[in-house]
Amino acid sequence: MSIEVNNLTKIYRLKRGQKKLAVDNISFTIPDGEIVGFIGPNGAGKSTTIKMMTGILVPDNGSVSIDGLNFKKNRKEIMLKTGVVFGQKSVLCWDIPVIDSLKLFRDMYRVPKDVFKENMDAFSQILGLDEFINHPPRLLSLGQRMKADLAASLIYNPDILFLDEPTIGIDVLSKERIRQFIKNINEDRHTTIILTTHDVSDIESLCEKMIIIDKGSLIYDGTLPQLKSIYKTTDLEEIIKKIYLAGEQRNAKIC
Amino acid sequence: MRKYADLAMIGIKEHTAYAGSLWANFLAKIVYLYMQYALWTGLFSSNTGKNIPLSQDETIRYIIVATLLSAFMECDVIAWINGQIQSGDVANQLIRPLDYKFMIFAKHIGTSVARFVIYTVPLGIVISIFYPVRLFCREQLLYGILSIILAYMIQFLYSVIIGLMAFWLIVTWPLNMLLAAIYKLLSGAWIPAAMFPEFLTVINLILPFRAIYAIPVTILTSPMSFASICENLLVQLIWVAVLFITSEAVWIVGKNKLIVQGG
Fold first, then answer.
1. Neighboring chain B residues of A80 at a CB cutoff of 8 Å
2. What domains are defined for chain A?
3. Is 60 exceeded by the pLDDT of residue B261?
4. Angle value at C-alpha B81, between B80 and B83, nearest 5 degrees
5. Could you say which of A88, A140, B10, B193 would form a disulfide bridge with B263 (CB–CB 3.0 to 4.6 Å)?
């Protein structure tokens, strides 16, 4: 499914009538079946944008359209096809075995029995899910919890997957496996994936397209090779640093 | 339906995850009940009961039934909702293809089932051993159960509304502390509502609290006319409707105010 974001704006109202423009008139399109890296420095408005794209926050202006559907009219329909993984928030129930949470999602998203079994087998094989499926999340390591969270968001074969810092705090080898897993999902199921991360190697190994935002505004929307050719270097980390630094300097001038 | 059954099951499992807390909770209820018993017995023996509209026996039956009901009706809905809004975990609920209130309600029912089996039933057995009297009016039992169901919904909707205040206040426990005292007193969970002085009775007529304990417990324990049973049930029905509409409105307005911090 493709996503169309038009003139999206979100203003946070702070105390004493102060306002903070978190997202400022952003527009972009994410084509069906692509993996898009969505990056920006801390506090750039990434999470706010993602939360508006997932229907958690209501935008102050503009619209999000998913295959022509919108949250006002087709909320449930969109939710049935969307998976979300927050690296810093677990969707699993803290005190009860992982398998119970997965079964809840199976029934919530009406997953047929054979699909559920097929997915469970696949997750066990690639993510090693069977090792900790009967433990509650509170007893899992961060890496295991992340894998369980990924499984919980993919058990119902969503068409769109939002990954908000899925590799935060994960060791190198597990990171590699999670990336491979995400790649496989995208290739096999043609899932559209939106990935936010601060880990440049995540983007290098996964994304074809990149969207960069800073201070709530869109800075770049294009492919990875294009970006590299603009800056005449293949070092993505260097490019991103330059972009962030330029943003800071621009900001300093305004102040 | 399966998904709601799953949620109820999760409610049961979450409530029973820590066995130690169950024992502590159960003992606390026994101590509370004994304290109430001792207090009322003392009160009645020092005062011949001439100013009190209920007899000693009626009062103690009332207190016992109210405690049995509260053992499974009082769940932590306020704390759940408040915690989720404050921590931002409510985001995880908003992305689901189900209604938030129904999800909470399913979990609430699960927790209530667990609490009924773990607290109400054993408490009932303990009471029947140490204080063997007929607690209920058999003829009114059916109306009593109907009244409990309505009270259960009122209690839930009230908790949802207070919990959702977190959209504005972020932290609702101070509000809850303030309201909890009013709630416990006016609902008749501590003291039979029939004993209230005139002005409290008047205030109570316009508030939903008495519909949670005073009405069902009175129907269960004291004989009354068919007309007044119907009147009481009607009052409960009206409160269910009023609180349902209010909670819906609070949800719709509050959701737009949501700010999910961090992450």
1. 97
2. 33-60+70-254 (3.40.50.300)
3. no
4. 65
5. A88
Pick from B35, B68, B22: nearest CA to B189 = B68
d(CA B161, CA B154): 11
Give the closest residue to B10 by CA, choosing from B141, B100, B123, B107. Answer: B107
- Domain locations in chain B as residue ranges: 2-262
Residues of chain B whose C-beta is under 8 A from some C-beta in A? Answer: 2-3, 5-7, 9-10, 13-14, 17-18, 88-89, 91-92, 94-98, 255-256, 258-260, 262-263
pLDDT tens sequence across A119-156: 999 999 888 899 999 999 999 998 899 999 999 999 99
Option in A54, A103, A107 nearest B95 (CB)? A54
Residue B165 makes CB contacts below 8 A (sequence gap 6+) with B172, B175, B250
Which chain A residue is nearest to residue B84, measuring alpha carbons?
A: A89
What are the residues facing A6 on neighbouring strands? A63
Give the ipTM: 0.86
Q: How far is residue B69 CA from its own chain's centroid? A: 7
CB contact (8 A) between residue A88 and residue B17: no
Which residues, numbered 192 to 231 in chain A, qualify as contacts with chain B under a Cβ-Cβ cut-off of 8 Å? none
A139 touches chain B (CB under 8 A): no
